[in-house]
Amino acid sequence: MLAFSANVPPQRGSQVFLANADGSGVKLMAADSPSYFHGWSPDNKTLAFVAQRNGSGQYDIYSMPAGGGPEKRLTENIHQDDGPDYSPDGKSIYINSDRSGKEAIWRFPSAGAGPNDGKAQMVVSDSLEDWFPHPSPDGKKLVYIAYPAGTPTHNPRTVQIEIKLVAVNHDKIAATQKILVQGTGGQGTFNVSSWAPDSMRFAYVLYEILP
């Protein structure tokens, strides 16, 4: 199966869809917009996405059964959350959030962050704006994209970004990060997980600035 988000007229905002691997049998999952797909639980039963509801201007994390059913709100903090991706054991969801005053990497139980997001914890923060965390399939690594400090959103495509790696040991996140990639990137560089099944490679996008 494939899960994806798309803008389909006459709807003005993004919605979440599900399809067979060959692209057939497209089914609308999250009809309310804007909704942006990001993660699929390891047991293939649940979709995680970021959405804005009721014109609030606030983006929160939601989940929905892949077999169909109502969406469930997982975070409620007044700040902006984005980029949900499941841990390999399905027990946690990693996100980026600006609730600390800058974009940083947070984690909470996959069932939800609880009242006032009391179960959410910041696990990675450096001097940059940290977005889109992706744990490796073997659970030993976490990669994310870092934008220059002060970059207000992930939309720019012509900024100097870094893709960083941190080690994970039994759910404990290392305090230091390693820079794997430096280049011109931004929106679309590393929004959703692209890890190879062997946890040794991942795919990403860089941009060439044409004259």
Summarize it.
The chain has 211 residues and is mainly beta.
Task: Furnish the topology, listing elements before pairings.
Elements: E1 2-6, E2 15-19, E3 27-30, E4 35-40, E5 46-52, E6 59-65, E7 72-73, E8 81-86, E9 92-97, E10 104-109, E11 121-124, E12 129-135, E13 141-147, E14 159-169, E15 172-173, E16 178-185
Antiparallel strand pairs: 1-2, 2-3, 4-5, 5-6, 6-7, 8-9, 9-10, 10-11, 12-13, 13-14, 14-15, 14-16
Number of helices: 0
Strand content: 35-45%
Largest sheet: 5 strands, antiparallel
Fraction of helical residues:
under 10%
Shape: globular
For CATH, the homologous superfamily is named as TolB, C-terminal domain
- Average pLDDT number: 95
Indicate the structural class. Answer: mainly beta
Quote the CATH topology: Neuraminidase
CATH class value: Mainly Beta
Task: Give the second-level CATH assignment, the architecture.
Answer: 6 Propeller
Write down the secondary-structure element order. EEEEEEEEEEEEEEEE
Number of domains: 1
Low-confidence stretches: none
**Number of E strands:** 16
Cα Rg:
16 Å
Distance between the termini: 40 Å
